[in-house]
UniProtKB/TrEMBL annotation:
GO terms, biological process: L-tryptophan biosynthetic process
Keyword Lyase: yes
Function text: Part of a heterotetrameric complex that catalyzes the two-step biosynthesis of anthranilate, an intermediate in the biosynthesis of L-tryptophan. In the first step, the glutamine-binding beta subunit (TrpG) of anthranilate synthase (AS) provides the glutamine amidotransferase activity which generates ammonia as a substrate that, along with chorismate, is used in the second step, catalyzed by the large alpha subunit of AS (TrpE) to produce anthranilate. In the absence of TrpG, TrpE can synthesize anthranilate directly from chorismate and high concentrations of ammonia.
GO MF assignments: anthranilate synthase activity; metal ion binding
Domain Chorismate-utilising enzyme C-terminal positions: 197-273
Pfam families: Anth_synt_I_N (PF04715), Chorismate_bind (PF00425)
Highest taxon listed in the record's lineage: Eukaryota
Catalytic reaction(s) noted: chorismate + L-glutamine = anthranilate + pyruvate + L-glutamate + H(+)
Organism: Geodia barretti
Sequence ranges assigned to domain Anthranilate synthase component I N-terminal in this UniProt record: 2-141
Protein name stated in the entry: Anthranilate synthase component 1
Amino acid sequence: METPVSAFYKIGASDYSFLLESVEGGEHVARYSFLGSDPSILLRSRGNLVRIDDLRTGETVELETEDPLEVLEELMTRYQPVEVEGLPRFHGGAVGYLNYDMVRFVEDLPDTTEDDRELPDCFFMVTDTLLVFDHVNHQIKVVANAHINGDVDQAYEHALDQIDELIAKLKQPLLTNYTNKPTSSPSSVPVTSNFTKEDYHQVVLRAKEYIAAGDIIQVVPSQRFSVPISVDTFDAYRALRTVNPSPYMYYLKFDELQIAGASPEMMVRVEDGSCGDAPNRRHPPAWSDPGRR
């Protein structure tokens, strides 16, 4: 039986691919998994500089803008998907990430943190083809979005060829380098943080002061942990989905940059002009007595 993981080994071998999954949840949360690869367009930004790569033509456009989000919005207005009965709300489009620094294009905030990673602030891939796993009906839908820029029949035939190509890849035998044998015990893996224990303690104390003063209502004092690995990052994602199955899981492959994660909640959804979220955050108790804070 084909699974999203086995299909990714067959389909996601390109430099740019993604897997979006709901590993647990009800029908409306965990019904679909989405797998895409071989995008037609790449968009990335860093600061005010934006780069767009058209992988179909080999053309690259670099520009400077006041707001990279407006460039992304303009790019997506070129795509007007047709509603097809039986397909989920997502059946192709831009998949990627926005980092925390992108908030500065929405709100005027200070930028005091050293950027020691030099990664893109945002990175999106636009895919024309997609595998949709329907876990309720036990079906795999192979989707190809046809771009109608001229000859309709030619665009339709090209989409059919893309579907046939994906099906042929799915029929191939599964060949992986996966092994169950650990390379080292957990106690022998060195873990480093971008904070010392004392520095992190001071951050927590300062956050509590902000809350007590009414400047903020909640905060996530995060820190970055780093460990060396000798396994493929997708195998690390497989382990994550086993130890922490979640309604929202993702694996994004941007050539040498791979991102894997799991979340119990949806951050935000915009649909038919309406914006909503589904928060599941835990809040500390609010005391009226300042001495109990």
